[in-house]
Write a structure and sequence with these properties.
Immunoglobulin-like; Ig_E-set; binds 2-acetamido-2-deoxy-beta-D-glucopyranose; 31% strand; membrane; Phosphatidylglycerol/phosphatidylinositol transfer protein; 233 residues
């Protein structure tokens, strides 16, 4: 069968369309491109969150202080004894000292009340081996009661502002398939704990902005830890 000019043209158009869709919706650029996109986004976010906590601390100490005062003067008056403020600063400093790009925070509760304590950070790293990027969550936490069967991890992910995915898993078996990376072994005894968990952000995800919320509840549905992440591919 002779290959006609028409077949060649049709094939080329198909290839171009597939490539076009790929570049339009799926091509994220190099790991460095993704990093710099997220760096811009999070620089803005960190500034507004820093101000929010800053004002919260000021208000609790000096209820008469008005919003919109001179930012430079307020610097001296922060309440370092407030665990919400001191934990936030400690983790911010940790991010800065390590030169990390933070894409999320981990707290002791899910609502954004002023007394929530920062327990950790989610950072983004370029993945030079598999391409794309990887997230790493760091968490320092004191567990008050032993954790065993019945505790669950719940997750909600939204994509460009719309709900994309919801799921929940039993904590004790959540990473039992990950032989080398397994970090959860039940029962988890009470006391101070340090966790570090790496998660590859899949390269096949379409371009766009992702926000994720993940939280851990005990057998009585009480929230123990709650993390938020926000990144753009
Ligand atoms: C978290 O805990 C580890 C180990 O105890 C410690 O080295 C690290 O400084 C802690 N990080 C923060 C931000 O407190």
């Amino acid at each position: 069968m002779a290959v006609t000019r028409r077949t060649v043209i049709a094939t080329l158009i198909c290839c171009a369309a597939v490539l076009g869709v790929y570049f339009l919706y799926f091509y994220h650029g190099s790991p460095e491109d993704i990093m710099s996109r997220n760096r811009k986004q999070h620089n803005k976010a960190a500034v507004s969150q820093g101000k929010f906590l800053h004002r919260a601390a000021l208000k609790s100490e000096h209820p008469q202080v008005e919003d919109g005062g001179d930012d430079e003067d307020e610097g001296e008056e922060e309440d370092e004894d407030d665990p919400a403020v001191s934990s936030y600063k400690l983790w911010e400093q940790w991010v800065e000292e390590n030169g990390y790009l933070s894409i999320g925070d981990i707290y002791d509760k899910c609502d954004d009340s002023k007394d929530r304590v920062t327990l950790g950070k989610v950072i983004l790293l370029p993945d030079h081996e598999k391409g794309g990027v990887t997230s790493v969550s760091f968490l320092n936490h004191t567990i008050e009661n032993d954790i065993d069967e019945g505790s669950e991890v719940k997750i909600e992910v939204s994509y460009n502002g719309k709900e994309l995915y919801k799921n929940h898993w039993e904590l004790c078996t959540i990473d039992e398939d990950e032989e080398e990376d397994r970090i959860v072994f039940c029962p988890i005894k009470k006391g101070p704990r340090t966790w570090k968990k790496e998660m590859k952000i899949p390269n096949y995800l379409p371009k766009g902005r992702y926000t994720a919320k993940a939280w851990l509840v005990d057998i009585d549905e009480k929230i123990l830890v709650c993390g938020f992440a926000d990144f753009t591919l």
